[in-house]
C-alpha cells in the first residue's frame, strides 16, 4: 500500500537513507511532523525562535542561511547545539539549481559549508540528473539526504505536469540519496515506466504553504490546513513559517512557543486520523 497509509515508525525501519530514517524516528519519538521555517534576518531572533520551538519540531528549516544579516560561524555552532538539545534535524532550504560540478562546490564550500551541518538540503530539478549526481558526491559520504522540488506552493508556479513527472523520475533513479520532495501531494509512481522498480518506493513529502488562520499572503503564497495537507493529501511533514513566528519585526517567544505547540498538535492529529481512515 502507499507509504502514507503506513506508520512513520514502519517507514523508518524500511528506509535506506540514514537522514530519512533519522527524521522518521524523531517524528515518532517526539510525536511531531512539524517543521518550522525560520525566516528571520537577525541571528538572535533566529536562535531564540529555534530554542522556543525545538521541543515541538522534527526539523528546523532554515530559509536560507544567507538571509541572516549578522551571520558568523557561531550561528552554525549554536544551531548544532540546539539540534542536539532538542533532537531535531536541520534542513537548509538552499534550493540548489546549477550544474553538478557547481552545486558540489556550493554545497561543500564557500562561507557556509552547508554539507557539514545540514542533514537535509534541497534542489530544483531544472538542471536534470546531473544536479543530483553533483550533490550526492558530497552528501552521500556524509549520510545526508536530498529533497527535490516537485511542486511549489506559490500561485502560478511552473512546477506542474511533465516537470513534476521528470523530477520524480530523477528521484527514483537515486533513491539512495533523494529522500523525497517539496510538494503538495504524494509522488510514488508518478511518471513511472513499466520497467521501473517501484518496490518500497517511499518518498517523504514536505509541504510548505500551511496555515491554520491565514489563506495566503500579499505575494502569492497559498495556505492549506494540516488536515488538508496531511490527512487528505497524504503529505508527511508540514512546514510552517509565519503561522508560528508572526509577521511583525519583534518576536514574542511565548507566543511562538504556543503556536508551535498548536501546529504540532494539529499536524499529529491529522496524521493519526490518516492512519485510522
Ligand atoms: N516555501 C514555500 N513554498 C514553496 C517552497 C518553499 O512557501 O513551494 I519550494 C518556503 C518559503 C518559506 C516557507 O520559507 O516555505 C513558508 O513560509 P510561510 O509559512 O511563512 O509562508
Name the quaternary structure.
single chain
- Bin the strand percentage: 5-15%
- Main sheet overview: 8 strands, parallel, barrel
Distance between the termini: 13 Å
Uncertain runs are none
The overall average pLDDT, rounded, is 95
**Helix/strand/pairing class, anyone?**
alpha/beta
Shape: globular
Order of helices and strands: HHEHEHEHHEHEHEEHEHH
What is the β-strand count? 8
Q: Which ligands accompany this protein?
A: 5-iodo-2'-deoxyuridine-5'-monophosphate
Spatial strand arrangement across the major sheet: 1-2-3-4-5-6-7-8
Using only CA atoms, what is the Rg? Answer: 17 Å
Question: What is the percent of helical residues?
Answer: 40-55%
Determine the number of helices (DSSP H or I, runs of at least 4 residues). 11
Key features?
single chain; 277 residues; alpha/beta; eight-stranded parallel barrel; 11 helices; 8 strands; 14% strand; binds 5-iodo-2'-deoxyuridine-5'-monophosphate; Aldolase_TIM; orotidine-5'-phosphate decarboxylase activity; orotate phosphoribosyltransferase activity; decarboxylase; pyrimidine biosynthesis
Amino acid at each position: 500500500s502507499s507509504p502514507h497509509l503506513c506508520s512513520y515508525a514502519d517507514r523508518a525501519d524500511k528506509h535506506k537513507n540514514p537522514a530519512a530514517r533519522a527524521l522518521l524516528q524523531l517524528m515518532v519519538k517526539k510525536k511531531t511532523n512539524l517543521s518550522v521555517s525560520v525566516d528571520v534576518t537577525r541571528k538572535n531572533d533566529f536562535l531564540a525562535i529555534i530554542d522556543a520551538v525545538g521541543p515541538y519540531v522534527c526539523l528546523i528549516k532554515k530559509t536560507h542561511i544567507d538571509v541572516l544579516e549578522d551571520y558568523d560561524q557561531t550561528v552554525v555552532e549554536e544551531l548544532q547545539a540546539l539540534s542536539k538539545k532538542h533532537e531535531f534535524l536541520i534542513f537548509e532550504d538552499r534550493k540548489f539549481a546549477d550544474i553538478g560540478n557547481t552545486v558540489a562546490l556550493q554545497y561543500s564550500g564557500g562561507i557556509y559549508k552547508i554539507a557539514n551541518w545540514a542533514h537535509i538540503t534541497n534542489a530544483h530539478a531544472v538542471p536534470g540528473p546531473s544536479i543530483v549526481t553533483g550533490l550526492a558526491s558530497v552528501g552521500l559520504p556524509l549520510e545526508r539526504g536530498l529533497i527535490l522540488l516537485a511542486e511549489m506552493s506559490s500561485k502560478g508556479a511552473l512546477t506542474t505536469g511533465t516537470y513534476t513527472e521528470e523530477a520524480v523520475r530523477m528521484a527514483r533513479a537515486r533513491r539512495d540519496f533523494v529522500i523525497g520532495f517539496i510538494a503538495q501531494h504524494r509522488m510514488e509512481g508518478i511518471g513511472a515506466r513499466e520497467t521501473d522498480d517501484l518496490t518500497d518506493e517511499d518518498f517523504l513529502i514536505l509541504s510548505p504553504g500551511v496555515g491554520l488562520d491565514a489563506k495566503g499572503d500579499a505575494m502569492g503564497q497559498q495556505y492549506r490546513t494540516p488536515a488538508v495537507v496531511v490527512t487528505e493529501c497524504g503529505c508527511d511533514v508540514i512546514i510552517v513559517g509565519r503561522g508560528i513566528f508572526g509577521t511583525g519585526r519583534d518576536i514574542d517567544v511565548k507566543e511562538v512557543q504556543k503556536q508551535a505547540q498548536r501546529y504540532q498538535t494539529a499536524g499529529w492529529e491529522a496524521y493519526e486520523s490518516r492512519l485510522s481512515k
